[in-house]
Amino acid sequence: MAKVLTPRNEDFPRWYQDVVAKAELAENGPVKGQQVIRPTGFALWERMVSEMDDRIKDTGTENASFPLLIPQSYMQREAEHVEGFAPELWTVTHAGGKQLEEPVVVRPTSETVIGEYMAKWVQSYRDLPLLLNQWCNVMRYELRTRLFLRSSEFLWQEGHTAHATYEDAHAFTLRILHEVYADFMENVLALPVLTGLKTAAERFAGALNTFACEAMMRDGKALQMGTSHELGQNFAKAFDIQYLGSDGKQHHCWTTSWGTSTRMVGGLIMGHGDDSGLRVPPRLAPVQAYVMTVKAGDGVGEAAAALHAGLRDAGVRSRLDDRTDVPFGRRAVDAELKGYPVRIEVGPRDLAEGKAVLVRRVDGSKTPVGLDSVTEAVTQALEADQQALYDEALRFRSDNTTDVGTLAEAVEAAGTGFARLAWSECGLEGEAKAAEQGVTVRCLQRADGTVPDSDQEPDLVAVLARAY
Amino acid sequence: MAKVLTPRNEDFPRWYQDVVAKAELAENGPVKGQQVIRPTGFALWERMVSEMDDRIKDTGTENASFPLLIPQSYMQREAEHVEGFAPELWTVTHAGGKQLEEPVVVRPTSETVIGEYMAKWVQSYRDLPLLLNQWCNVMRYELRTRLFLRSSEFLWQEGHTAHATYEDAHAFTLRILHEVYADFMENVLALPVLTGLKTAAERFAGALNTFACEAMMRDGKALQMGTSHELGQNFAKAFDIQYLGSDGKQHHCWTTSWGTSTRMVGGLIMGHGDDSGLRVPPRLAPVQAYVMTVKAGDGVGEAAAALHAGLRDAGVRSRLDDRTDVPFGRRAVDAELKGYPVRIEVGPRDLAEGKAVLVRRVDGSKTPVGLDSVTEAVTQALEADQQALYDEALRFRSDNTTDVGTLAEAVEAAGTGFARLAWSECGLEGEAKAAEQGVTVRCLQRADGTVPDSDQEPDLVAVLARAY
Ligand SMILES: [Zn+2]
Ligand SMILES: [Zn+2]
């Protein structure tokens, strides 16, 4: 059979493009840098939204919806923020056939407009913390785009919270990082992530501190999967977000913001995919079990339908493919491309022996299973393969992470993976020098891998890598 | 106690504004006509999305995501479409600090861009029907706006499908109208809706036929709650959506589109609200039961928490309000404003007798209930009150619907409700004349209330009303 995809070790970026196209995940939109997310790709995102949204709500955060368009003047109120985002803005100048009095921008992120409303809604310490989130689209002008990874428009969630104290804001920023982001990424996406602090150079425009989750892709490069920002009182001062304390005095709030996007779909592809296509972790998978008729006749259709119904009854997200007018081989290749965790192939020969074949996407193994045991076998396979994907990704990362002693060694090691270097050996100068060679500090960690409270802590370790 | 809201019979539009503000549902955005949907309002929309999305998926439709920005040239390909939408467009002219080569518009609806992709994706009859939907934001320039009802940006779902035959497209348009829209509105929103055909004057720009769901608000005016359009082959021809038939020949597809929006939140408010605020039907309600401590002490907090836990275990969406530092009266007024279907008030006096008080929002009734029976009483009340709200709305509509014989009588009757007039007595001329007095034909129905296939059927009845 001809190769459907460019092999990864031949040309990884080309392999990625092939998977996105052939698994029918997304396409370029008609306007430069925009994307069309097709049903197969969107179903992955919907499952991400559902799992993330549960975790976000568990923190007490409520969803809301803020406008797409933001007055230019809002963007300008926080000095670093406007500087960071000015080059990326899309501007609306006309509406209803007339020129607008003040140009407005399509939100690149919503700190400013949400800040304006927080200032209205927060009056007293009783109104705090104010915990908001929205799922929406944002736009940033990008010259070089890549589907899911970097596009002019993307879908995301952006959380925005206001707190009475530094301590409360700081703790919440880290709670989102660990309990929402890292928990989702490790336990649902099956991708181990490093959590750490961004350097000043990589920080969000206007933030005191940016914390991030970084995952290793199968080419050894890093992907920033999510960020959680401590904004200090910068936005509270720019937008006058104040509260009357129990001490009878006015205080500025401490705010946070945090986001994850459709970029995670790119991370899923490059974190688990192989030369046959996507491999979707069972807990995430919109289709966990794919029941296929090999060919028509001999009760095959009925048996497949019964297995499908049994799986559904057991709470498995099953899909039935009984399109016997499409060649079986083509359908099987398509199922591999789309990364369904298990396939159940129902054909006349096995059926005559009371069996169907269980094919596991993770390792390609094919096992005949008695019809009565299919549901149980599937359930067990789904659980085991969730873990197997995580273990494999963790092993890959650890095989491709090197402790180094000098910046030169770090740049060298970042050619194939992550390099861990004492931050005192790197520093701002070393960071700038590495950047000239396409290597960046992905995050700062404590020596034990935990997240530092600030980049002023002693004995920090910098993780350097090439990144998407 | 001072009235919190302007009474409905004093000034209905003012009452509506009051509810939206005081129940903390939404506010105006900083850019004219845009809206901020606050958590209480957004939770209603989230529940609508969830219930609608289930029904949409049950039809075999899959979700996807298409770009926010559409090249102006796309809008121009279908003549009636561009004419209908040109005055409402928001235009982006600059990005990344430079002028764009071709101006692009913020989508007012996505027939054109989705048409472009359908043309790529549909090759043979095997690819049909192609059933797509997206949940997204759209923008239309509006001079006079009202929160939820008419705003420059709104959230909606837009379904877009392509079919091999007229019959299949026609049937699907009506399936959406009945099985998704009317079913959701009647069984979840508890709002009876008239389903019918729009006249040529009220049709979607570029459609052959527009079918609609129309509900009566408590001021007797109509609100269009959702529309389902038969687009014939107009868009298929403009965008070259063709398929190779089983006859070996190329054919143009027949397409449909259909939408519902955050406007339904406005319908919910005006369809069920009373002088104390919102009344949310239990099946929709994000908070079905609101458990309140009347004041602290005497085991009240513990009892309330236990009742809340018991309700949650029974699958009731319960919220606990134990803020004894906020006056009880203020909390109770707020609960009425927000329309929680039932409240459980837990106070020391009732508790001493082993009871709590069940307050039903629909009729304001207060009943002491033994602690052991609370869950059962709540469950029964929720079921009964879902029906009670529907019955009340249906009675109101039927009390305010008049069969009339002349256009003059119809315009008169439309002052307080719906008028039913033979379409042959009204016609295009009568429709234009009524419009001068602010009365429009909401839909055409057959004499038995069912939906006609076209406005050419004999003996049609026109329903006339003032409308939002
Ligand atoms: Zn201060
Ligand atoms: Zn044709």
From TrEMBL, chains A, B:
- Physiological role: Catalyzes the attachment of proline to tRNA(Pro) in a two-step reaction: proline is first activated by ATP to form Pro-AMP and then transferred to the acceptor end of tRNA(Pro).
Naturally occurring in which organism (per UniProt): Stackebrandtia albiflava
User: InterPro entries, from UniProt?
Assistant: aa-tRNA-synt_IIb (IPR002314), aa-tRNA-synth_II (IPR006195), aa-tRNA-synth_II/BPL/LPL (IPR045864), Anticodon-bd (IPR004154), Anticodon-bd_dom_sf (IPR036621), Pro-tRNA-ligase_IIa (IPR002316), Pro-tRNA-ligase_IIa_arc-type (IPR004499), Pro-tRNA_ligase_II_C (IPR016061)
| Protein name as it appears in the record | Proline--tRNA ligase
> Which is one Pfam family of this protein?
HGTP_anticodon
The UniProt family comment states: Belongs to the class-II aminoacyl-tRNA synthetase family. ProS type 3 subfamily.
Domain (Aminoacyl-transfer RNA synthetases class-II family profile) spans 41-281
Q: Domain of life here?
A: Bacteria
Protein EC:
6.1.1.15
Q: Which Gene3D superfamilies match?
A: Anticodon-binding domain (3.40.50.800), Bira Bifunctional Protein, Domain 2 (3.30.930.10)
Q: What is known of its domains?
A: Consists of three domains: the N-terminal catalytic domain, the anticodon-binding domain and the C-terminal extension.
Q: Where does it reside? A: Cytoplasm
Q: Which GO terms describe its molecular function?
A: ATP binding; proline-tRNA ligase activity
